[in-house]
Automatic annotation (TrEMBL):
Pfam families: Arabinose_bd, HTH_18. It comes from Oleiphilus messinensis. This is AraC family transcriptional regulator. InterPro entries: AraC-type_N, Homeodomain-like_sf, HTH_AraC, Tscrpt_reg_AraC-type_HTH. Keywords: DNA-binding, Transcription, Transcription regulation. Residues 204-303 form the HTH araC/xylS-type domain. The keyword Aminoacyl-tRNA synthetase does not apply.
Length: 310
């Protein structure tokens, strides 16, 4: 690693500088040259080097929040720093769930970014609270051969080949107070992040805006989405086609992802979740879900609606 960084005019200390960003393209250069280091090992090592900093509004929100619940909720602002990572926090009666979605366009990079995120978030939670929480991780990838060498210090359980990428923490840990809590700093930094995110949303592609309407506003019908976007239905269809996608494809993708998250981290019934996803008939939702995951919604709940990561 040190040799590689030297070719870029950097050092290991450079990685800890507040404004430093490690370009994704460097990972493509780095990994093939280091056959002794597997992708997850490399990614986890990077993530575990993350340190708290008061530089930037995102860091300030995470640090100065009143408790770790608010810190995890603020992870959604990661969109201000990365256009390939999205994080969503959900809470049930038994646990807190941080869903991590990676879309770099490369399975190789997705795996690296995901393990980096798991390690970095865990390290930041320890730094903010002074506690070492039990973290259960669910990963969509297969288990790496040498994985047991990667995380000997992690308290928790890892599950692989899962339907979602998710970090789970115990409900009681969510109330843990931040060592750096500052109500005024928190409010100011959060408002700044909200403003930046709103500005960013205005520049998003039409497909991103459609997905946002589905996820955040519960707009599932194409005609209604077109109305909200102030375009005709035919114009919306044409603009999506220019991006190589269709409304029905986006609808299926979002519903599938949201269904897995809600059935995992929500205490709501299958009927309620089906309605939240725009299904008028629960049986239609159940049929679609069975097609996606080869499990009925009730079977999925039995296997995944637990806080133990198994």
């Amino acid at each position: 690693m040190q040799v590689f960084l030297q070719t870029k005019g950097l050092s290991l200390e450079s990685l800890q500088e507040p404004d430093f960003r490690f370009p994704l393209k460097w990972l493509n250069e780095l990994v093939p040259k280091n056959n002794a280091i597997s992708r997850p090992v490399l990614a986890y090592q990077f993530g575990d080097m993350v340190r708290l900093t008061s530089q930037g509004n995102l860091s300030l929100v995470f640090m100065t929040s009143p408790n770790i619940r608010e810190s995890l909720e603020s992870s959604r602002f990661i969109a201000l720093q990365s256009n390939v990572v999205s994080i969503l926090f959900r809470e049930s009666e038994s646990a807190g769930y941080l869903f991590i979605d990676i879309s770099s366009g490369s399975r190789f990079l997705d795996q690296i970014i995901l393990f980096y995120c798991f390690a970095a978030i865990r390290r930041l939670m320890i730094a903010v609270t002074g506690l070492n929480p039990v973290c259960n991780m669910r990963v969509t990838f297969e288990k790496p051969v040498d994985f047991d060498l990667i995380v000997p210090d992690v308290r928790g359980h890892w599950s692989f080949s899962q339907p979602t990428n998710c970090l789970i923490v115990e409900k009681s840990f969510l109330d843990s107070r931040s060592l750096f809590a500052d109500p005024i700093e928190y409010i100011v930094a959060k408002r700044a992040c909200e403003k930046e995110l709103a500005t960013l949303n205005e520049t998003r592609s039409i497909s991103d805006m459609v997905c946002k309407l589905m996820v955040h506003d519960g707009i599932w019908e194409q005609a209604k989405a077109a109305e909200y976007l102030h375009v005709s239905k035919s114009t919306l269809k044409r603009r999506l086609a220019q991006q190589g996608v269709s409304y029905s494809a986006l609808l299926t993708e979002v519903r599938k992802k949201q269904a897995a998250q809600l059935l995992t981290a929500s205490d709501a019934s299958v009927q309620v979740i089906a309605a939240q996803l725009g299904y008028r008939d629960q049986s239609n939702f159940s049929h679609a879900f069975k097609k996606w995951f080869n499990l009925s919604p009730s079977e999925f709940i039995h296997d995944h609606r637990k806080g133990d990561g198994s």
